[in-house]
Amino acid sequence: MSDPNTGRAARTGGRDAPAPAAKPPGKRERAKSERRLRIVRAARDLIRETGDTDLSMRALAERAEVSLGTPYNLFGSKRAVVLAVLEDERDFVDRFFQLKVDNSLERVFAAHDLAFSYYLKDPDFYRTLWRALLERGGQDETGLASPERLAQTREIWISLLGDAVRDGYLSPPFSLARLEEVLEHLVRGALLSWVMGNQQTETLSTSVGLGYALCLAGMATDSGAPILARRLQVYGSELDGAAHKDC
C-alpha cells in the first residue's frame, strides 16, 4: 500500500502545498526503468506459466532479454523481483481512493470487494503468490509481504474500521487493532482453503464478505445493524444460489 498521507490529502481537499515539479529522468534512468519493466513482465509470465515463485534467474534474464547480472543489479534478490511483480500487479490504493459508497461501513465492504476482485480476475496467478505468502518463506518470516507492506495494509484497514466506529455504525468491545487481526485471520483462513483447492474462486469473495458481516454484526449499533443485516442476506443468498448450481 502507498503512503496513508494520500488519503489524508484527499480528505482535506488536496490543500497540501504542491510539490515542486520533478526533473525529467535522463536517458540512463529511462533505460534502467525499461529494463526493470521488462524483468517484472518476464517474472509475471514465468510465474503464470510455471505456477512457482522460485524463479530461475537465468530463465528470467533470458525472457527479459537482459544480462544474467541485471536482475540482481536492479533488484538485489530473487525475492525482491517477485515483490516487484506483486506491487506492479496491484493498483489497489489508487482504486481504493476512487471508491464511491454511501457510508463508512459500506466502504469496508467496498474495499473488501476491490481487494478480492484481483483474485477473481487472475486466480491462477494470485493463488501462486498466496501460496508463497502463506508458506512464510525468508529470514524475516513475512513471505512475499515485506514488514512495511504488512504495516501499511493494517493501517488502512484499521483506519476503515475506525471511520465506521467514529460515524456510529460499530461499537467494538476491544481495540481496532484486535478487530483487524480477527478479520485478517478470517481472510487468511479462506485464502488457505482457496490455495488448497477447498474453496471455489467464484464464491471466495462472498464467503469472506459473509464472515466480515457476521463478525461486525456482533458489535453493530442501531445505525449499523440494518446495513449488516442487508449484507448478511445478500451474501447468504448468493452462497445458497451457488450451492444449488453445484447440485
Quick synopsis:
By secondary structure, the protein is mostly helical. It contains twelve helices and no strands.
Distance between the termini: 40 Å
How would you spell out the order of helices and strands?
HHHHHHHHHHHH
**Please, what is the average pLDDT?**
83
DSSP helical segment count: 12
The fraction of residues assigned to DSSP E strands is under 5%
The shape, in one word, is globular
Q: Which stretches of 5+ consecutive residues score pLDDT under 50? A: 1-20, 138-142
| Structural class assignment | mainly alpha
Overall number of structural domains: 2
Find the count of extended strands (DSSP E, 2+ residues). Answer: 0
The biggest beta sheet reads:
none
In the CATH classification, which architecture of the largest domain applies?
Orthogonal Bundle
Radius of gyration: 21 Å
Query: Could you say what the CATH topology of the largest domain is called?
Result: Tetracycline Repressor, domain 2
Relative helix content:
55-70%
CATH class of the largest domain: Mainly Alpha
Protein name: TetR family transcriptional regulator
Keywords: DNA-binding
GO molecular function, one term: DNA-binding transcription factor activity
InterPro entries: Homeodomain-like_sf, HTH-type_TetR-like_transc_reg, HTH_TetR, Tet_transcr_reg_TetR-rel_C_sf
Please provide a written account of the structure.
The chain is mostly helical and 247 residues long. The chain has 2 domains: 26-89, Tetracycline Repressor, domain 2 (Orthogonal Bundle); 92-246, Tetracycline Repressor, domain 2. Helices cover 69% and strands 0% of the residues. The radius of gyration is 21 Å and the shape is globular. Residues 1-20 and 138-142 have low confidence and may be disordered. It holds the Pfam family TetR_N. Residues 56-75 bind DNA. Residues 1-34 are annotated as: Disordered. This is TetR family transcriptional regulator.
